[in-house]
Amino acid sequence: MALKRASLACTVCGSRNYSVKLGSTPKPKRLEVNKYCKHCSKYTIHKETR
């Protein structure tokens, strides 16, 4: 089974800072993680983009 690659984008500035591997099982919501954004210089919520 192949893993999909998805990017995590900052909700404040919109830059795509991280990439993650996801399983192929469908999820009703997109992944949301609190991560450090080097462009904003603070911790912000990053949402999954496809």
Entry summary:
The chain has 50 residues and is an all-beta fold. The protein is built from no helices and 4 strands. It has a 4-stranded antiparallel sheet, with no helix packed on it.
Defining key terms:
mainly beta; single chain; four-stranded antiparallel sheet; about 55% strand; about 0% helix; about 50 residues
Tell me what you see in this structure.
The chain is mainly β and 50 residues long. The protein is 0% helix and 56% strand. The protein has no helices and 4 strands. The two termini are 19 Å apart.
Write the layout of secondary structure elements.
Blueprint: E1 4-10, E2 16-22, E3 32-37, E4 42-49
Antiparallel strand pairs: 1-2, 1-4, 3-4
Q: Globular, elongated, flat, extended or rod-shaped: what is the shape?
A: elongated
**Number of beta-strand segments:** 4
Determine the fraction of residues in helical runs and give it as a percent range: under 10%
Largest sheet: 4 strands, antiparallel
Secondary-structure content class? mainly beta
Oligomer: single chain
Question: Quick check: average pLDDT?
Answer: 90
Rg estimate, integer Å: 11 Å
Give the end-to-end Cα distance, rounded to a whole number of Å: 19 Å
Strand content: over 45%
Low-confidence stretches: none
Order of helices and strands: EEEE
Number of helices: 0
Strand order of the largest sheet: 2-1-4-3
